[in-house]
Amino acid sequence: MVIKLESSNSFNTEKILKAVTDCEKAIENIPQSIKQLKLTAVETIQPADVTALKKKVQLLEDEIQSLKSQLQTEKGNNVLLQEQFNSAIKNEQSMLEDTRNQIKLMVSSNNNEIDFKSKRLEEKNEEITQLTSSLNIVKKKLDEAQDEILQLKSNISASLDEATPRSSQKEVVREVPPAKPKLLFVGTSNIQEFISTFTDTPDMLVLHSLTNDLKTKQPTQCIDRLFDIVSEASSKWPLLKCVISFTTPRRDSITNFTNAQIIKALLKQKFSGIDNIYFADHTNMLVNGNPNDNLLCEDKIHLNDKGISILASNIKRAIHTGLHIPLPPARSRSKSRQRPNRGRGRGRDYE
């Protein structure tokens, strides 16, 4: 806008200066013309024409005064236009300076915001790194928990072997020791392979791990799959007994926990009254109907050592019930283990 105003002012100034220059030239030429006319009048003009020439001279002088007055007016206009132009230039410069300052403030503000967001991005990247590290630790713990579960299965099998009633030692009387029951302890994910490849005839099938099926299947699908597994195993081993371990409590999702309770009710309804079907109930892992946090790992899904111990106890109780094997009496700590001072005789305490 400043350039446009300057161009317009320059054009008007040039017009005024040109008019002033033309007037000055005309004024300069008038005296010369008058002088020339006087010389001509002296030489050629007759006395009769003097009056007419005087009138003409008067007209020329009047015209000179008019041109001088016009010139003065144009000079005043030129000064006024110059002042207006200077004022407009100053105003535009002031506006440009204000705009420049506003742009500087905006740039400074944007730079501060960029710095803040860059810092936040670095913090988020660091947080992601920490979460990734924590995730790897949790995965490692889950793998360790799976290994512990496998070890637990082995321990249950060994404890069942130890729990088999031993024949009382009597002189001369010889009793044939009862055959040890064979257990097939599997999860619902690998049961198909075991049923097809297991060559021995098991006395009991223990099914667990419905907890993982809740992630991908609806309760009715889990029930149908479990029923198919039991039916297939029963058709292969007609005398087979089966223990179905209910889903263990979890707190990762209210939906999964509710589905687990639905599965429990459907299982009881589906297999109620069927011979050789026994349930391992884990209600003792609940507190007021809700999962006991003291029995869960940090992921709120898998059981910790204490929870696994209760799980093993519940399954063991169902196995003993199904095989009609009495549970061994609860072990109590002997006095010899409670007191540090022991006598010389085995099994005797001396005070």
From TrEMBL:
Superkingdom per UniProt: Eukaryota
InterPro entries cross-referenced by the UniProt entry: SGNH_hydro_sf
Residue ranges, compositional bias (Basic residues): 332-345
UniProt keyword list: Coiled coil
Gene3D superfamilies: 1.10.287.1490, SGNH hydrolase (3.40.50.1110)
Segments for region (Disordered): 325-351
UniProt keyword Membrane present: no
Coiled coil (residue ranges): 50-162
Protein name (database record): SGNH hydrolase-type esterase domain-containing protein
